[in-house]
Amino acid sequence: MLIESGGDNLAATFSPELADLTIYVIDTAAGQDIPRKRGPGLARSDLLVVNKTDLAPHVGVDVALLERDTTAARAGRPFVMAQLRHGIGVQDVVEFLIEQGGLQPRP
Known about the structure:
Layout: E1 2-5, E2 22-27, H1 34-37, H2 40-44, E3 47-51, H3 56-59, H4 63-74, E4 79-81, H5 90-99
Parallel strand pairs: 1-2, 2-3, 3-4
């Protein structure tokens, strides 16, 4: 499994051939236009995590527009709007990993 942080979404190292499962993480605080760039990590990873959505009001990001742009950029691929530091979205990521066979559910 490869987990990569996207920064400005122009991942130089994203290569799906190197991993069975890829999770790409972008930071809401990096700006409104990240999904519109449609970089390879954002568009083709198995799961996209849009993290730090709680910072949106502080950096001038409209979360609803960010989610719409992400939906369009992902073209049906799964993504999670998250605040991982606060535990929001963590369960969605865990459920995705269980579904993909990357984790075993707790008894």
